[in-house]
User: What shape does this take?
Amino acid sequence: MKVKILLVEDDTSLGFIIADQLKSDGYEVTLCSDGAEGIQKFSNDEYHMCIFDVMMPKKDGFTLAREVRSMNSDIPILFLTAKSNDQDKVEGFKSGGDDYLTKPFNIEEFQLRVAALLRRVHIKTESEDSTEYQLGDYVFDTMNFELRHSNFEKVLTKKEAQILKLLCKFLNQVVAREVVLNAVWGQDDYFVGRSLDVFITKLRKYLKEDERISITNVHGIGFKLEIQE
Assistant: This one.
């Protein structure tokens, strides 16, 4: 399995150039043009490394990195930016970045930094994103959006499936409300927040066949999918 890299760069031409270089180096690349799309892609797939531009529409690279860090504390993050002052570099590291490369950059240096970051975290490329989750007596098929139980079967909507998959990935852990909203809707405001509450209520109803399963609302923080032993 190839190393999968999430590249978020709003300069279309530069994004294609970087993506092509990474692909020629043997990596699998997902290219996004803004931070909102980036967090959605990250939430719905598995990646081994992130490369983020800093100045982007909808969501800047520092904000994106903080959201990624709330879901994965180990994945290496490399910032690419035209901003070279020390204050910006400090902000980049505080937001969760591991390295910082100023544009324009030498492509060989870029390749070496990518390789060094991947070595640092001892990437295990054999692990794949789960397509099925065993939730107590349920089976959740993420590819076909199917939730199956001996007494119940439901084809979920895309958003229902996205929310449940995110909760499954962080089973027995609290997932911040804003992380779910940004991952599924690409924004965090009052109206989509109300929609999220409706979807959570529906998922609880679908999962009621197994009383060991619960989706807990952690007040002021987010949600936790739990399965009692």
About this structure: The CA atoms of residues 20 and 29 lie 9 Å apart. The chain has two domains: 4-120, 132-227.
